[in-house]
Amino acid sequence: MVRVTGNFVKESPLHPKAQAALAAAFDAGWADPKKLSQVATRANRMRAEAIESLAQLLSLRIDEIEVLGEPLLGHYLSIAGFATGASTNIFYGATSRSEIIATARSFTPHEIAVGLKGDIQISPSTQSGIFALQIANGETGVIAQSQQIVDAYPNALIACDATTTPDISLLPNRWDSAHFDSQSWAGPAGIAILGIRNSKLWKNPFPHIGIKRVPQSYSLPLLLSSVVALEAWRNQSELRQLNQSLRARIAKEVHDCDIAGDLDESLPSIASFSFLYCHGEELVRALALRGFDVDSGSACTSDDLAPSHVLAAMGVLTHGNIRITLHDGSTQDDIDALATAIIESVAQLRAQR
Amino acid sequence: MKIIDSRGKRCPIPIIECAQAMCELVPGESIELLSDDPATLPDLLAWGRMTNNFVEAQGPETFHITKK
Between A274, A305, A315, which is nearest B45 by CB? Predict the structure, then answer.
């Protein structure tokens, strides 16, 4: 087996500090914080400290924070908590996550087209409802024009999908719920944070007894580790130059390549390339053989053999697609080697057709 | 007009077969591509933009492509 020298898939290893914290948390934070024993009291104190840190790091009030043990659940909760019935209007961009689209379709959906750069084609509306606002797209990294969108929908509640980045500077100045995913800051999988700012209008949409707003079935050790990872997270602006060099070299040396979105309006960590006449799965495998792990949005790599709805909505080529995620610690040498591998692999695959 | 039947073939084969057929055309001439792959429509439109050819969907599995 070829040794993996470059991890460019979405997932990354836990931040070392988070890994250490996880082990310690399983040691000390295993008790149920809701009980009265000494160990439970200690767990409760650890939980309270974690929530305080989260509040500070994500600019949330403590009473706005809910922790989820199933991140995908947050997409539904953040929107459906504000819905008043099937006739509730849900506005969303065509490149939103499929979980958002599925939620919208269970009410009254209003899909908004995007342009070739992934920008939402804003059509101002005074209709009431909920705007499911994806802060940044996980496949292309394209950042939404959040403030313009919020201003164009003055009567809509704003449910932010912030699961691709904890960069709170990207949030608009008005929002009603915000959903974050621990994995976006190199924290453990299985932890999400739901910020409920408008608690007067938000109601738990699930059948429930009592006053709990969300299921409380998350792992405390994972939460503690996640907070440590968030404390260690830093804005990834230093990756922008690496991303730019990768895009520039591929654009220069590979013909018939579609690059999704402009880096100036995207997260610095993501690049999506589609190569005409290439098979996405073959390209992913060719790169793996050279020691580079990457993701793909092509139909041939998806479970249902459907092309990426994100790339299709943008009008970007969906076949021959690879998605590169740069992580903290990526170096120029890594990027140069990856670019060479992509250029050679694409040429090899095209020669075989 | 030449008809390319790519039904039953997955991406990127229909686009490759379409591109190969287009090589034999002169500007203004057209082909019809038959494909039942859900990726064909978005990919044909992107291919048309990238290669400067005109693409028109005439049905869910029928596409008309004109060389510019």
Answer: A315
The proportion of chain A whose per-residue pLDDT surpasses 90, expressed as a percent, equals 80
Return the beta strands (E) in A225-332 as ranges.
257-259, 270-275, 292-294, 321-325
Chain B residue numbers touching A256 (CB-CB < 8 A): 50-51
Are residues A46 and A25 in contact, defined by beta-carbon separation less than 8 angstroms?
yes
Contacting residues of A for B12, CB less than 8 Å apart: 276-279, 319-320
Chain B residues near residue A298 by CB distance under 8 angstroms: 11, 39
Q: Which two tokens stand for residue A291?
A: 């020691």
The mean pLDDT of A332-349, rounded to a whole number, is: 97
Check CB contact of B39 with chain A, cutoff 8 Å. Answer: yes
Interface of A with B (CB under 8 A): 256, 258, 274, 276-280, 298-300, 305-307, 311-312, 315-320, 353
ipTM of the complex: 0.93
Domain count, chain B: 1
Q: Where are the beta strands (DSSP E) in A244-348?
A: 257-259, 270-275, 292-294, 321-325
Fold of A236-352: Aspartate Aminotransferase, domain 1 (3.90.1150)
Contacts of A40 (CB under 8 A, 6+ apart): A31, A32, A33, A34
Q: Which CATH number fits domain A16-232: 3.40.50.2000, 3.40.50.410, 3.30.70.980, 3.40.640.10?
A: 3.40.640.10
Average pLDDT, chain A: 93
* pLDDT higher than 90, residue B34: yes
